Amino acid sequence: MIDLLTGALASGLAAVLDYLSAHVLTCLVPAFFIAGAIAAFVKKDAILKYFSPDTPKHISYGIASVSGTILAVCSCTILPIYAGILKKGSGIGPATTFLFAGPAINVLAIIYTARVLGFDLGAARAVSAVLLAIVIGLGMALIFRSTDVETLKKREMAPSVAGACEEEKPRWVTPAFFALLVGVLVFGASQLDWAIRIGIVYVLTLAIAVLLIYYFDRDEVTDWGLETWDLTKKIFPILIGGTFIVGIIAFFLPPETFQPFFGNNSVVACALASIVGMILYMPTLLEVPIIGTTFGYSAGLMAPGPALALLLAGPTVSLPSVLVIYRIVGAAKTAAYVALVVVFATFAGFVYGNGMLLI
């Protein structure tokens, strides 16, 4: 019994250490700084112009659904940015579409899927991710219409205060600042040689420092730091705890346990794949070898339907991210989001696996 408990705790600790070594410096730290910058520097009008509850749906959902094409992030890394845009007054629907799309359709993951698992599955993943992001976002907006009504009421009641310091800056400064932050995230998480990555991140960081020194005052930089810290202390401990729990679960139920159940394209197999994807933490890009080897897709042991369902649910939601989403939006919205992801990932996998989705 003691050996079993020790093994489980060691598995949880190993999962945390793997997460810290692989994602904190290259993904999570830049994501927290981006989220803090959104809260500190971006005018509400900029967010509300595209993601407000009253923005035309083809604009808000269209932009949110393709947002992940440049962000090589996983379900946990997207969370600080998601919290940041909600804090600025985004509608629940566009924000949820962004939350799903961010990890689901980054270009690296799509290309990697097509190369390793086949073009058909890669194309199906790309198309399904965009469609599901929009449908899930619309579903959340429909279910929680009262939330958007409340958001609009708060906006109307809030006093309109013009930021004088923001007006003094050249218009290009803030977009350039965010482009550099996103560059740090993208290149830091890339698969380039480590020396090249460090060099690029170093140059981008110097450019950020120059902008901060010459175009931002001390109060603005302090506000950025406080917003970043506020998000970090709310989210990071839960991510670590959730990752530890996933490691313990993996000790008792390793992925190989489910392999025999994924050999057909039935609704049950696709649903099980979606649920497993919802629980497991799969960093971006690593979902491809996990599905190809651990679950046996490359060897023909896993059917296409469950493979697609797992590709859609796995990178976009996980137990650690569910715990954080609960902290951000509460139990009802979290449960609805998870249920929508599982249901529609199951549906997409079943449709693709049975030849009803022609790619």
Automatic annotation (TrEMBL):
The entry's keywords: Cell membrane, Membrane, Transmembrane, Transmembrane helix
Chief location category: membrane
Domain of life per record: Archaea
Protein's cellular compartments: Cell membrane
Membrane-protein topology: Multi-pass membrane protein
Protein name from the UniProt record: Permease
Similarity annotation: Belongs to the UPF0718 family.
Membrane spanning stretches: 20-42, 63-85, 91-114, 126-144, 172-189, 196-215, 235-254, 266-286, 306-328, 335-353
InterPro entries the record matches: DUF318
